[in-house]
């Protein structure tokens, strides 16, 4: 979360706060409804949920472990991520 907010924050602190709020809202939705995400075919123990924001979205990768939802990674859809 800090990395994502720090990326936007210097240019637009208000947008950074809105982005963090949107991500937290999506994480709360996942906690309430863990089945909302799409299971990854290559790694079925993981699911992804999309939190739309601005011109892109934040992808939240998570897994359910017993009664717990574990957030594994969050990134913006426009990030240049290594494969």
Could you characterize what this model shows?
This protein has two helices and four strands. By secondary structure, it is of the alpha+beta class. The protein has one domain (2-76): RelE-like (YaeB-like fold). The chain has a four-stranded antiparallel sheet. The longest helix is centred in the first third of the chain and has 20 residues, at 13-32.
Question: Can you describe this structure in just a few lines?
Answer:
This protein is an alpha+beta fold. The chain is 33% helix and 40% strand.
Draw up the topology in text.
Layout: H1 2-8, H2 13-32, E1 38-40, E2 43-53, E3 56-65, E4 68-76
Antiparallel strand pairs: 1-2, 2-3, 3-4
CATH superfamily: RelE-like
Termini separation: 21 Å
Query: Averaged pLDDT, please?
Result: 89
**Count of DSSP E strands?**
4
- The number of distinct structural domains comes to 1
- Provide a count of the helices: 2
Percent range for β-strand residues: 35-45%
**Which strand order does the major sheet show?**
1-2-3-4
Judged by helices, strands and strand pairing, the structural class is alpha+beta
Level of helix content?
A: 25-40%
Broad shape? globular
CATH class wording: Alpha Beta
Task: Fill in the CATH topology.
Answer: YaeB-like fold
In terms of per-residue confidence, which ranges show pLDDT below 50 for 5 or more consecutive residues? none
